[in-house]
Amino acid sequence: MTDDDQTPEGRAEITTYHCLCSQLLGGTRLPIETMPKRQLDNSFIAIPGDFGKSPLATISTQDLLVDSVPTVLRLDDGFEKRYAARCGRCGLMTGYYLDRSQLDNAETGVNEDVLYILPDSLEATDKIRQST
């Protein structure tokens, strides 16, 4: 972490995000808009986990519910299994996880190593404060 990533008190700057219904869903040290994008659908690529143990693209999600049954999408070059990540309050899909079989062909189930955040599905707390 560089000095630019910290507040004057020495703490890491955290940006918090809300669902469009205003439910707090999580936070990250790296603003979502600056995270790498997936070419397929322009979703932002984030790594769920502990801020202290992961890269700057880490997102801490506190109120996301993950569907237990995947949605299968047909793509030009095959198919993809996605598990929707939804707001725990209103059920809005804010992102998704891929099925493990999409990555290693070994087993199925949610691959929680990477969260793909849909564009315009979350609002930063600062942006919400400015609009009120």
From TrEMBL:
<protein>
    <recommendedName>
        <fullName>STEEP1 domain-containing protein</fullName>
    </recommendedName>
</protein>
<feature type="domain" description="STEEP1">
    <location>
        <begin position="11"/>
        <end position="127"/>
    </location>
</feature>
<dbReference type="GO" id="GO:0005737">
    <property type="term" value="C:cytoplasm"/>
</dbReference>
<dbReference type="GO" id="GO:0006888">
    <property type="term" value="P:endoplasmic reticulum to Golgi vesicle-mediated transport"/>
</dbReference>
<dbReference type="GO" id="GO:0090158">
    <property type="term" value="P:endoplasmic reticulum membrane organization"/>
</dbReference>
<dbReference type="InterPro" id="IPR029704">
    <property type="entry name" value="STEEP-like"/>
</dbReference>
<comment type="similarity">
    <text>Belongs to the STEEP1 family.</text>
</comment>
<dbReference type="Pfam" id="PF25809">
    <property type="entry name" value="STEEP1"/>
</dbReference>
<dbReference type="InterPro" id="IPR057965">
    <property type="entry name" value="STEEP1_dom"/>
</dbReference>
